[in-house]
Amino acid sequence: MSRRRRAVKREATPEPRYNSSLVSHLINVVMMDGKKTTAQRIVYGAFERVSEKLGKGDPVDLLMGALENIRPKLEVKSRRVGGTTYQVPLEISFERQQSLAFRWLRNASRARKGSMQESLAQEIIDAYNNTGQIVKKKDDTHRMAQSNRAFAHLRW
User: Fold this and answer.
1) 80-100 residues labelled b (16+ CB within 10 A) or e (exposed)
2) pLDDT, mean over the chain
3) How far is Cα 106 from Cα 134, in angstroms, rounded to an integer?
4) How far apart are CA 115 and CA 94, in angstroms?
């Protein structure tokens, strides 16, 4: 890691269909091997399925509601003190919360059987309804942070 200066955080350009940088970030997370048009097809197809199944309007609003339910607020990081490793709970920045939520969404979708469009749509619906694998992962992360809060004084 360079010690000269911090890397500049670049904003993702909004994608054309929904004009949302949030959807653009999701497309970039889903993309594999630089195949952006394939990732766009997957995400747009998943959004169509989500709006069909939930019967609500804007898929971007549904995605925002799902993200609210799966964004972790706390995490634990390993900290070595005097030969012993402690799991220290830390609050997470908003950018990291967003990145973890998208990464968990992608990994849970890939772990499901069936097409990526269908599994991504189902994961978004589960997250919107506050059920499913990703919400459980968030709860486990928070539970781990709560159980290790005695080591919060070791924060750096």
Assistant:
1) eeeeeebebbeebeeeebbeb
2) 90
3) 10
4) 30
Measure the CA–CA gap between 104 and 136, rounded to whole angstroms: 11
Contacts of 24 (CB under 8 A, 6+ apart): 12, 13, 14, 15
Residue 100 confidence (pLDDT) = 95
| Band of pLDDT at residue 65, cut at 50, 70 and 90 | very high
Cα 62 to Cα 55, 92, 141: the distances in Å are 10, 23, 24
156 — pLDDT class (breaks 50, 70, 90): low
- Return the amino acid letter for 119: S
SS3 readout for 22-48: HHHHHHHHHCCCCCHHHHHHHHHHHHH
Ordered alpha helix ranges (H), the chain = 21-30, 36-54, 59-70, 94-111, 116-128, 133-147
**Strand, coil or helix: 89:** strand
Instruction: State the pLDDT at residue 93.
Output: 93
